[in-house]
Design goal:
Radius of gyration: 25 Å
Distance between the termini: 43 Å
Shape: globular
Number of strands: 18
Number of helices: 5
Structural class: alpha+beta
Oligomer: single chain
Largest sheet: 7 strands, antiparallel
Number of domains: 2
Strand content: 25-35%
Length: about 350
């Protein structure tokens, strides 16, 4: 039996609104039948952190058992392997409009309440009249400022509806004419991943590709076990109550981001929106040229492919393509990267938004 130390403070779905110190730092002794990877530390103790190191005589922590493997788990193969489409750009615009729209509505109500006092101020008569006057619609009178404030307030909702309808249309269009799995050879060197000998359908044009690495959400059962909690106890900060067995995205393992991670999707179909990993780093896009693409390693050295119930390092290849009808598609394929033989330390954990439309910001 192999023993090692795992320390993790994983960012919750709304990580921008949470102080990392308010989230429990999980520290456990991991027992496994397979040996652990070379030591690595990503992040620091004052922020989000993921660390896997050797055990020492001074470590007195709770122990949990987990399978340690370099093989991609079945759930990641189902959710991060295949063809995907990008969400409609209107989703991002609608998200950015929410805060200004709410502020405009609040200010409008405030000016409406202060209108009697502002009316006494010289030169503000005409301005105040807009917020103090009303118009009749049927048997009721309504404040005139609603003609300005209300349309602005509901505009993000309208944009979301339009974006979802366009997403539905593209998803249905794909399922009416699905694409086959592209075939290509992968050659992995120490610093470069080479893709060559492509065999892909004629209706698809490859534009570019990149390497991507991330840390998926820890398994809920292992998080609770590490914190000495059960499903009947109060959940840890950043987690929700347990969801039904059927999950759509990996973030729902925590019970967070439900309905927020990806836009609306077709029911009873494979998800065509690629869920972002909250901890993720990407290499540079490399253009497709002469049936070969060379993908350089990331700027910072990351650990190789390794999976356990709490900490997992997942590597994948992203191919950006365009169908002959103009629809942009992505092919995502897991890839196994070997470990380096030295300790890895990355100062900051690269945290992304859990929402797909904001993940690239």
């Amino acid at each position: 039996m192999h023993k090692s130390i795992q320390r993790i403070r994983y960012p919750p779905f709304e990580h921008k609104h949470i102080n990392p110190h308010e989230i429990n730092l999980i520290e456990i002794v991991l027992e496994s039948e397979n040996p652990p990877p070379p030591p690595f530390k990503i992040g620091n103790d004052d922020n989000w952190i993921v660390e896997w190191r050797k055990i020492t005589e001074d470590d007195r922590l709770n122990s949990i058992f987990s399978i340690v493997s370099s093989r991609t788990p079945s759930f990641l193969l189902r959710t991060r392997n295949g063809w995907y489409i990008d969400p409609d750009p209107l989703h991002k615009q609608a998200r950015k409009m929410i805060t200004p729209a709410v502020l405009i509505l609040i200010i409008s109500f405030l000016l409406r309440a202060l209108a009697p006092s502002l009316e006494k101020i010289k030169y503000l008569d005409g301005f105040v009249e807009i917020f103090w006057s009303s118009f009749q619609l049927g048997p009721l009178n309504y404040p005139a400022f609603l003609l300005i404030g209300f349309p602005i307030f509901i505009s993000p909702i309208c944009l979301r509806i339009v974006a979802n309808l366009r997403d539905f249309s593209r998803q249905k269009k794909y399922y009416s004419n699905t694409l086959k799995r592209p075939e290509f050879d992968i050659h992995i060197d120490q610093n470069i991943v080479t893709l060559k000998n492509f065999n892909i359908e004629e209706e698809i044009i490859i534009n570019r590709a990149k390497l991507q690495v991330g840390i998926p959400v820890p398994e809920r059962s292992s998080v609770l076990e590490a914190l000495n909690k059960t499903e009947n106890n109060q959940t840890a900060p950043g987690m929700s109550t347990k969801l039904p067995a059927r999950r759509i995205t990996t973030s729902e393992e925590h019970g967070t981001g439900v309905g927020e991670t990806t836009p609306m999707i077709l029911s009873n179909r494979r998800v065509l929106m690629l869920e972002p990993m909250r901890v993720m780093a990407s290499g540079q896009w490399e253009n497709y040229n002469s049936k070969t693409i060379e993908l350089p390693s990331l700027k910072e050295t990351w650990p190789g492919s390794i999976y356990s119930s709490l900490i997992a390092i997942h590597w994948e290849i992203i191919l950006e393509c365009v169908r002959n009808d103009g629809v942009k598609m992505k092919w995502v394929s897991p890839i196994k990267i070997e470990h380096t033989h030295h300790k890895i330390h990355i100062e900051n954990l690269p945290v992304r938004s859990g929402r797909i439309e904001l993940a690239d910001d």
